[in-house]
Amino acid sequence: MLLSHAFGLFTHPDEEWASIRKEHEHPRRLYVAYVVVLAAIAPVCAYISTAYFGWTVGNERLIKLTEISAMQLSILTYISMLIGVFALGYAVNWMARTYGAKEEHVPSNGIALASYSCTPLFLAGFALLYPVPWFNAIVFLIAACYGAWLMYDGLPIVMGIEKERAVMYGGALLTVALVILVSTRVGSVILWNFGVGPVFVSG
Description:
Blueprint (H helix, E strand, L loop, with lengths): L3 H8 L1 H11 L3 H12 L2 H13 L1 E3 L3 E5 L1 H28 L13 H10 L1 H6 L8 H27 L3 H34 L3 E3 L1
Antiparallel strand pairs: 1-2, 2-3
Helix pairs in contact: 1-2, 2-8, 3-6, 4-5, 5-6, 5-9, 6-8, 8-9
């Protein structure tokens, strides 16, 4: 049932957001049945492409990651995605009163809004099976833009606020999302210094 929302958010988002609000799904079930499943797409595809397909650099020289290195980076990426979605969901709930929405004791709607807004980014992970940097960058940029629009569109419906307030609310949440993204990148660099960095091999 939860995975069916992924398709609906691309075809009829307003109706899908209304359905999501009515479900008021508990964050734990939403995470296990939706986020944990879809967030795995990008790490799995990245592991396959970087460990087995590789990419060309310079004079058509094929570069790959070792299987262990690819696995380590994929797991770190997966954990970062799970933490990021969870943190964004709590930010939605934490800011609720500021923008006229109801703050929930159990932030079901906030977690749902964050989780489903990230759907385009989750599905964009399939693009990593074609490891061409410019192609991946374009796909993820489009996915991020659509995800941001989904959040803006869903805020008034899921959180029950006026459409006008969704602009400021959405802008604040995008700022939080950028902070989360930067924090995870910085965390990755720190871990690289402890020996978890990428290990390259020629194809």
